[in-house]
Amino acid sequence: MLEMRKDIFADERDDDLREVGRPTQRQDILGHVTGTSAYYDDHRFANLLHLKVLRSPHAHARIRSIDDAAASRAPGVKRIIRGADVPVNLNTLLSLIQFGKDDEPSLATDTVRYKGEPILAVVATSERAAREALELVRISYDSLPAVFDVEEALKPGAVPVNPAYPKNTFDYHGKYDHQKLRFGDVEAAFAKADMVLEERYQMSPIEHAPTETNGSIAVPDTNGRFTVYTSTQALFFSLDTSAKINAMPSNQLHFVGGTVGGGFGGKVDTLTEPLAILAARLTGAPVRYRLSRHEEMQFGSPRGAERIYIKDGLMRDGRIVARKVRAYFDSGAYTRLSSYAVVKCVAHIPGPYTIPNVHADVYCVFTNRTPATAMRGFGVTALDFALECQMDKGAVAIGMDPLEFRMLNAYRDGDMKAHRRVAKNCALIECAQVAAEKAQWPLREEFRRMSSRKGGGEARPEVVADRSRAPAPAGTPRSPASTPQRVAYDRPQVDAKPPPSPPRDVPSPAGAPPSGSTHGVRRFSSIFGTRRR
Amino acid sequence: MAKHRGRGVATINYPIGMNLGGDPSQALVHSNPTGKFTVSLSSIDLGQGMKSVTRQICAETLGVPIEDVYVDTADSDTGPHCMGSFASRGTHRVGNAVMAAAREARGVMMEAAAEELEVDPGDLETDGRGAIHVKGAPHRSISVRDVAIAAQFRQGKTISGRGIFLVPLSDVDPETGEMSPATCYAHACQIVDVEVDDETGDVTVLKMTSAYELGRAINPKLVEQQLVGGSWMGMSHALYETPEPYYPDTREGPRDFNEYLMPGPGDICPHDIIVLERPAADGPFGAKGPGEMCANPSLPAIANAIFNAVGVRIDELPITPERVLRALRERGRSVAASRAW
Questions:
Q1: Which residues pair with A140 in a beta bridge?
Q2: DSSP state at residue A224
Q3: Is A320's Cβ below 8 Å from some Cβ in B?
Q4: Chain A partners of B241 at a C-beta cutoff of 8 Å?
Q5: B78 and B219: one domain?
Q6: CB within 10 Å: which end of chain A, N or C, has fewer?
Q7: Helix, strand or coil for residue B229?
């Protein structure tokens, strides 16, 4: 259930609006709940042809020869498309915003660089006919060594994956193999820190797993135009990419999107439209190209894996004085969007905390796997996982409540961020206070009084030194619950004895009595509670 | 064997819009001759509610009832350019473009009404129910419908507006990383309670308690939909999902939903959600965007809760039962492993 806390930041808001802020029923709800909203694949065409691609069985190989003679004579086959048929067979998505080099073919010609890379397309009267024709294509390969680990890929002598980037890293600013962040002096701060905590984190790739797989239908229209029905998340992005690859003026393409069966970032790459359009041009018929579930799972781009190393310098009073990050984005064989995610990741370091010394090097690395792309939380999700696990370890290391440790270091209005912009409009502390109150996570009085609007832009006021031994102020709800919680967090790292059975009474801060509202103003839900007007 | 309960927390922020800006969106708003408005966009509604959010922003700005606005999306012949539906940019970027277009259309509508009522446009206001009247004199009124008819057939005016919103592209310093990545940030804190079975390695998420600060909830129901769905996705990322379970080794990749695991309806937990609104200076009515950020805190909060429950840190995602058991065994902490039978 959702509850609005209109009392907080009320002085910064105008609450006399008429339509904004209302839980109005969505405009498209009737279509959605009655199953009549049209997806791209709900459009029906007579003489529809179907496109299927042949994918590489090797992660890295040279193509010695392709024999498609039998396939071209197979029943129902209308056309076979090879790399040489693609007008501009090298592209990178972000060339639309002048970022990066063209590095990815629509259909591989001489080398395949990941298992599943498209080599050849069959256009046939049914998907089955197309699949059966693909079985008749004979390709001979010379297998090449492949690299799958980001740090292996950076070692001297590593197999080069992508000829546009022979050192297996994206080029930043024409001179670096990574994006830098430099703020203050981390090494000096580590030397003075009471404690240094260095950790490694790894996120595996993640599939967007949309209900509707990627797909499109290209339909020849009158006057040389083509109408393209598509599942894209970015209509003009896909239109301009398709126009570039097909060497067509953009106004010969009419893109129609609409209801999408789940995107999450996996429908930006324009995986199907360029070949569907090319096939429609070559055959003069409407052509559908949609990924099977297996293709979507393994060869549609995933959220890329990231490996992140974090080193923190901590003081006993709970302040973080330095944070150093080294991270590797696994881009797979081609760039797509990972190069951009790296810069967004750098901008996000060191997280929503004010740390005076920050240092980061983040790499976009090429390996012989399915190219990665954007996904919900682009460049940030894995970093947040690493940062927030690191924050938890830091709290344990110095013996401080993990939420209070975060609030103490939280950024506030007026603080200078590591990318050298002044923080404003902050609200991390307030979120922590509200969630803690609701979950009955006990916070000490000084933390319940904290504000994102006070104390920023200057050194934080002194807090109780060595907080782990500081008695909680009398009467605060934290003390009864916090003692067993402390035991849980401070459990020694190595314990040779088997735990007692039952192992222990697992403590939880939830046992604390509810604390009073820290804000003291009436609150209501805009959905269930008092009406606003 | 035993089940252990634990609690973990994470606090995060999230930038709104494409990193560094440079990601414009346009909108067109026009009235038909009976005072019904159409918003023309090329932006995509992925199910997140883009059409509904922009519809509410347009109605609020025009000062007309929501029923009198219809949002048409996703056609490159009729909708002007939009960068795309990603980067939590829909509400902020497209919302601002629609607001600008609606403001321009409202200007023409008020001029046309002023001409009909023979007053100064500055003396008029909308009542939000389909009429325009002289401030302080509600009886001197004209319906939006009559204004639209007059504009089209008598005055020869188009009640229409164009809008664009662009955050100018920021440079990035190669040496220091100095840059302007975003103009505003959403915030969240999530507290998660889990139960860990030390015999099977299974992790059950029992409860989530979250606070999200979003600038302005344009539509609280749509916000709730995003926050509930995002937390589910975060839980799924934390405990279940990957196409490469032994990354960087590529073996055992799933091919379908029988092999690619995600939590089902029975794994969804109660979730207390609280929304805060600290308006962004450049957001439409202060709005930021809830889309991406709400998935992020669940991953670390669950990992931290598992540590609180059984004392092992699992720093690799996803936190599968296999990884939990291996970590417990490595630490010599598994009750099952320590028993003599």
A1: A65
A2: G
A3: no
A4: 206-207, 209
A5: no
A6: C
A7: helix
Q: Are A91 and A245 in contact (CB under 8 A)?
A: yes
Give start and end residues of each alpha helix (H) in A399-496: 402-409, 428-439, 445-448, 478-489
State the total domains in chain B.
2
A336 touches chain B (CB under 8 A): no
pTM of the complete model: 0.91
The count of C-alpha atoms lying within 13 angstroms of the C-alpha of B238, restricted to the half-sphere facing its C-beta, is 30
CATH no., domain A150-206+302-397: 3.30.365.10
Return the SS3 of A261. Answer: coil
Is A403–B11 a contact, with Cβ atoms under 8 angstroms apart?
Answer: yes
* In a domain? residue B146: yes
The answer to whether the CB atoms of B300 and A387 lie below 8 A apart is yes
Candidate from B47, B276, B279 with C-beta closest to A431: B276
Cβ pair B84:A175 closer than 8 A: no
**B102 shares a domain with B52:** yes
Answer CATH for A44-144+208-298 from 3.90.1170.50, 2.40.30.10, 2.60.40.10, 3.90.228.20: 3.90.1170.50
Question: What are the sequence ranges of the domains in chain A?
Answer: 44-144+208-298, 150-206+302-397, 401-469+477-511
- Map tokens 């902050």 to a residue: A426
How many other C-beta atoms are found inside a 10 Å radius of the C-beta of residue A4?
Answer: 23
Q: Which residues pair with B163 in a beta bridge?
A: B27
Give residues with Cβ within 8 angstroms of B84, minimum separation 6.
A232, A233, A234, A235, A236, A237, A268, B43, B44
What are the residues whose beta carbons fall under 8 Å from the beta carbon of A417, sequence distance 6 or more? A354, A411, A423
Local confidence pLDDT in tens for the 341 residues of chain B = 799 999 999 999 999 999 999 999 999 999 999 999 999 999 999 999 999 999 999 999 999 999 999 999 999 999 999 999 999 999 999 999 999 999 999 999 999 999 999 999 999 999 999 999 999 999 999 999 999 999 999 999 999 999 999 999 999 999 999 999 999 999 999 999 999 999 999 999 999 999 999 999 999 999 999 999 999 999 999 999 999 999 999 999 999 999 999 999 899 999 999 999 999 999 999 999 999 999 999 999 999 999 999 999 999 999 999 999 999 999 884 444 444 44
Q: Which domain-ending residue is among B165, B196, B227?
A: B165
DSSP string, A486-522: HHHHT--S---SPPPSS------GGGSPPPPPSS-S-
Residue B174 domain flag: no
Q: How far apart are CA A355 and CA A509, in angstroms?
A: 28
What is the CA angle A92-A264-A417, rounded to 5? 80
Strand partners, A162: A165
Q: What is the rounded CA–CA span in Å between residue B297 and residue B293?
A: 8
pLDDT at residue A479, as a whole number:
30
Q: Which of B136, B165, B194 is a domain's end point? A: B165
Residue B171 lies in a domain: no
- Considering the domain boundaries, does residue B179 fall inside one? no
- Containing domain of residue B121, as a range? 25-165
Q: Choose the mutation target among A425, A434, A438, A482 for the interface with B, i.e. most B CBs under 10 Å.
A: A425
Q: Hey, what are A215's tokens?
A: 């797909």
Same domain, yes or no, for B211 and B126?
no
| Inter-chain touch A426–B187, beta carbons under 8 Å | yes
